């Protein structure tokens, strides 16, 4: 991280339950910057919980709020480690924003590990109903959605510190800029 290089954000993408929120906090500490969770930013901006936005206004309204929050966060002057929601990558506008303003890291995990991590979380509106079936269906629907990332890490059998170290090393090697 040389001083003559523009500071860019590190953007964590991936399916729910892959560790984005946890890793973002630890990575931010490691890099000496702040962490930002886009879902938390949406709640703050909309003054409404995500599950409530889905229930009262629908997924389309949530996705619009998500793009607005992502754009605002990516516009920050200070370097951030940004954890996105699992579906943020579904929008081409969001993917373009992430690539233009950050070093994008996709976190993946084995489906059964994802199920174990998210099955007890009531704040996941896309998992209402059968968790196992929904996870497998959404993973299939999104199997190529994270392919645009600069780096992909399978978090299934790694500790948070191992993930953080891999991201920090790769980001430093790649000068933290996108190739787009």
The H-level CATH homologous superfamily, spelled out, is P-loop containing nucleotide triphosphate hydrolases
**Strand neighbour order, sheet with most strands:** 2-3-1-4-5
Which class of secondary structure composition applies to the elements? alpha/beta
Major sheet attributes: 5 strands, parallel
Cα separation of the termini: 20 Å
Order of helices and strands: EHEHHHEHEHHEH
How many separate structural domains?
1
CATH-derived topology: Rossmann fold
Instruction: Give the low-pLDDT segments.
Output: 1-5
Q: Mean of the pLDDT scores?
A: 88
Question: What would you note in describing this structure?
Answer:
Helix 4 packs parallel to helix 5 and helix 6 packs across helix 7. This protein has a single domain, classed as Rossmann fold. The protein contains 8 helices and 5 strands. A 5-stranded parallel sheet has the order 2-3-1-4-5. It is an alpha/beta fold. Belongs to the shikimate kinase family. It is an enzyme of class 2 (transferase). One of its GO terms (cellular component) is cytosol.
Ordered list of secondary-structure elements with their pairings:
Layout: E1 9-14, H1 20-31, E2 34-37, H2 38-46, H3 50-57, H4 59-74, E3 80-83, H5 92-101, E4 102-108, H6 111-118, H7 131-141, E5 151-154, H8 160-173
Summarize the structure.
With 180 residues, this protein is an alpha/beta fold. It is 49% helix and 14% strand.
Task: List its traits.
180 residues, alpha/beta, Rossmann fold, 5-stranded parallel beta sheet, 8 helices, disordered N terminus, kinase, magnesium ion binding, amino-acid biosynthesis
């Amino acid at each position: 991280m040389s001083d003559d290089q523009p500071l860019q954000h590190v953007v964590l993408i991936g399916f729910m339950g892959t560790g984005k929120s946890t890793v973002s906090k630890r990575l931010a500490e490691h890099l000496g910057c702040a962490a930002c969770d886009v879902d938390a930013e949406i709640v703050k901006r909309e003054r409404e919980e995500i599950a409530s936005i889905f229930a009262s206004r629908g997924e389309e309204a949530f996705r619009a709020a998500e793009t607005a929050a992502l754009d605002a966060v990516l516009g920050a002057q200070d370097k951030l480690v940004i954890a996105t929601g699992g579906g943020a990558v579904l929008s081409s506008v969001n993917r373009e924003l992430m690539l233009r303003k950050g070093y994008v890291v996709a976190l993946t995990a084995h489906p059964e590990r994802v199920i174990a991590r998210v099955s007890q979380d009531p704040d996941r509106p896309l998992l209402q109903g059968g968790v196992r079936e929904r996870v497998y269906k959404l993973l299939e629907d999104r199997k190529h959605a994270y392919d645009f990332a600069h780096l992909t890490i399978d978090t299934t059998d790694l500790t948070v510190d191992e993930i953080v170290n891999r991201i920090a090393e790769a980001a430093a090697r790649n000068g933290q800029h996108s190739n787009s």
